[in-house]
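Reading group handout, session on sequence-to-structure problems. Before we discuss, look at one worked example. The prompt was deliberately terse, the way you'd type it at a terminal:

> structure DNA repair protein RadC

The input record follows.
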Amino acid sequence: MTIKNWHENDRPREKMIKFGEDSLSDAELLAIFLRTGIKGKSAVVLAQDLLDQFGSLHNLLNANEEEFCKGKGLGPAKYANLRGVMAMAKRYFESGMNKGDTFTRPEQIASYLHLHIGNSHRETFAMLLLDQKNHLIELVELFTGTLNKASVHPREVVKAVLHNNAAAVILAHNHPSGDPTPSQSDINITHKIKDALALIDVRVLDHIIVGNGGRFESLAQRGNML
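And the output record:
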């Protein structure tokens, strides 16, 4: 039986229009994007097969073109469509959160960071530069690779802060593994940078670590900024 023969409350598009997107499973949302299935499989069944193949919706959406096109029923055209949809989502979010916005809530900061570094396959260290009223001046990406004492240089952090005349900063990095739990190295580097910036009277308000699926950890909330 094809999707056209299903009850309208069970068809992904009609279900979303009637009950909202939150009523749909990951497979149903993906089926709307796929639009059609393949011989012998509806779009929903194909979507679930793809989720099983990639392990999660996050892994599928963050696959590179070569990995993506290995999926059943996928190809360069669908990959281009996907990148376009994700680019629109990013611009939609950024249109309501740009330079000059006040950054005070960890949830707000994490959402912003997920768009910029959350999907990177390599660990990326970044910094939100803020003015006296915690308005965003700039997001700068400083280092890429595993965080350790050798890779994160406080002098580069200080240089970026002085160049932008920032009054406060929020440190950030992603965990490509998906688990945002901070390591002892993450905590040590936070304190090292905090001490360096204290010498020029610049506050380190937090260190946000983003994982996948919207997960994040705030060192300030965990009490690790003391």
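Points for discussion. First: The domain at 3-94 is CATH 1.10.150 (DNA polymerase; domain 1). Second: The chain has a mean pLDDT of 84.
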